[in-house]
Amino acid sequence: MAARLRRELRTEVDMVRGRYGEFKVLVDGEPVVDAGALAAFGVLPSARRVIEAVRQRLAPKSRW
Fold it and tell me: What does the alpha-carbon distance between residue 9 and residue 1 come to, in Å, rounded to a whole number?
């Protein structure tokens, strides 16, 4: 996922080891994706969902 975010969004990505079954994606310290308890069972959000969530958070804010 980190490599795909780097490639598709051309952004810096840091990977941090979490607890067993933890899957979170943070942008500027704020969570944009959190797989919650289902991550422990291997149920993760799709790559498309993760990329779109990060893309939306990185998008410039409109003044209107």
Answer: 12
CA 57 vs CA 21, 23, 26, 44, 50: distances in Å: 24, 18, 10, 20, 11
Q: Number of structural domains, the chain?
A: 1
State the pTM of this model. 0.83
63 found inside a domain: no
The 3-state DSSP class for residue 47 equals helix
State both tokens at 13: 């990505």
pLDDT for the residue 62: 67
